[in-house]
Amino acid sequence: MAAFPQVTIFFLVSSIGILTAFAAMKPHDFSRWPPPPCKLYYPTDPLYQLDEPECPNVTAYVCALDGHTYQNECFFCVARWEFGPHIKFDKYGKCG
Q: Which positions fall inside the Kazal-like domain (predicted)?
């Protein structure tokens, strides 16, 4: 029975090592991801305040073609809704 914890620890450590090796072999290509689904983020309230978007406080950067980095896709979509379709999606992640 004393060998069971050692075998479990060995299995967990080796699994993490294998997963790390496979993750390093195939990097994510964020440029091939689809643009944000902005229809999900358009305000539905007719009394919507432009200075107070109801976006979650989550950091998942979105880069626009104008070089501006938005905190997440909600902020990107609200800016596009407020300022016009000239704000175009470039990639996920920080700009520059």
A: 32-96
pTM listed for this prediction: 0.63
For 4, the token pair is 């069971």
Cα–Cα dist 13/69, whole Å: 37
74 burial (CB, 10 Å; 0-12 / 13-18 / 19+) is: buried
Residue 83 belongs to what domain range?
29-92
| DSSP-derived secondary structure letter, 94 | -
Cα(94)–Cα(91) distance, integer angstroms:
8
Buried b (16+ CB within 10 A) or exposed e, 80-89: bbeeeeebeb
Q: Torsion angle, CA of 20/21/24/28, rounded to 10 degrees?
A: -70
pLDDT in tens, 47-78: 776 666 778 899 999 999 999 999 999 999 98
